[in-house]
Amino acid sequence: MSLVLKNVSKTYVGKKVVDNISFSLTKPGVYGLLGTNGAGKTTTIRMLLGIIKKDSGEITWKGKAVDREHVNFGYLPEERGVYPKTKIFDQLMYFAELKGMKKDKAAESINKWAKELKVEEYLQMPAEKLSKGNQQKIQFMTSIIHDPELIVLDEPFSGLDPVNSEIIKNIIIDLVRNGKYIIMSSHQMASIEEFCSEISILNKGKTVLQGNLKEIKETYPANRVEVNVNQDITTYIKALELEVENETNNNYVIKISEEEKAHKLLNNLIKDGIQVDKFEIKKPTLNDIFIERVGEE
Q1: What value does the mean pLDDT of the chain take?
Q2: Which distant-in-sequence residues (6+ apart) come within 8 Å of 105 by Cβ?
Q3: Sequence-ordered list of residues with C-beta below 8 angstroms from that of 170, at least 6 positions apart, any chain
């Protein structure tokens, strides 16, 4: 199975919002689709799910053109939407039946995922009684309740505290283990780095960077060193004309333009008998790369 987008474009009122975009998912996993607001991410997602029509190009799933009637997909949109006055269980049953599930199977799936997401106690409550984070978990449940093969998650961690974020993360990991194909769009770069081996970055409808994230990072020189020591080393850092990006409890993140200075810093610390518990030269983060590619715009 695979999802393939080839030379896909879309124009609204004379403006090309998606311009000749191509990418593919050829095996189960999470693909990162990134871009600033208005970059074309949501339009791309809606085209690949068959919600809106493309102007040109090809979108196929399992070698066949995408058709909403034949693609078993789940979609968590960025715009949140639960019915505030309706009981959670009734909403979930409604969405499950829309996806063709029988009531008994739907109820079984609702109870299973409610337990996984720790929202069992809310099933008989109207949505308006739930916190924003729990409403988010309910909406996430609607995207997976029918066991879809292809899942699109647009900002899945928005509004979640660290505990609930961890619950969602573990479920995403299990979904991939169970052979699901997932596209994730998020402004939380750390989440993309955690899950996605392949990414596309869009800017003004065009692809500005695409490929394997690890390989992309390898093309960039190291730009930071993290040093964890048992005392203040500010004088050593200043002596080499380096800049501290962050320091907490003698754990330093230091900007570097060349690795040689980082090694010189380490040598100076060891020579003077300073205990070094951690020394790690780091490549740019995805956030650094993203800003470099689209930040100036």
Answers
A1: 92
A2: 96
A3: none
